[in-house]
Design a protein that fits this description.
69% helix
Length: 154
């Protein structure tokens, strides 16, 4: 019983200590957010088509289909095996740099500009209240006795 309790404690600790960089990935659905659904999903029928009245031999058509499908499959596999990890490294580095710049430069710069604009806004508001408000109040008092009458003449 004590061994079982120790095992459960270790299992719980393992769950707690699990690294966020090693989350489980779905090896079946590799595009769960469907970001490449319309862009790179290209089949033989999307590229090569023979209109009515212009058909090649059936054997040539079948072999062309097989050649296209197999060569696309293996070319992608080989390219991703050779360049996938280096390109993933470059993209990781790029997005890390973008995140770093955003966190350490862009957001503080925007915050600084907002603080400065609030200061300028207060000075502008004070100037408007000091100089323009009395001027427009005086104009309002001058023209307050003006009466407008509309007459419709036929």
């Amino acid at each position: 019983m004590a061994d079982q309790y120790q095992y459960n404690t270790n299992t719980n600790e393992e769950k707690i200590v699990k690294d966020s960089h090693t989350k489980e990935i779905d090896l079946i659905n590799r595009d769960p957010k469907q970001i490449n659904e319309d862009v790179v999903k290209v089949d033989f029928e999307d590229v090569i088509a023979e209109p009515d009245g212009t058909h090649s031999l059936d054997g040539v058509w079948k072999l062309s289909y097989t050649t296209f499908t197999v060569s696309k499959y293996w070319c992608y596999r080989i390219l991703s095996a050779v360049f996938g990890i280096p390109v993933a490294l470059l993209w990781g580095f790029l997005f890390a740099c973008i995140s770093f710049c955003h966190i350490w430069a862009v957001v503080p710069c925007i915050k600084s500009c907002l603080i400065e604009s609030q200061c300028i806004s207060r000075i502008y508001s004070l100037c408007i209240q000091t100089f323009c408000d009395p001027f427009f109040e005086a104009l309002g008092k001058i023209f307050s006795s003006v009466r407008v009458a509309l007459r419709k003449e036929v």
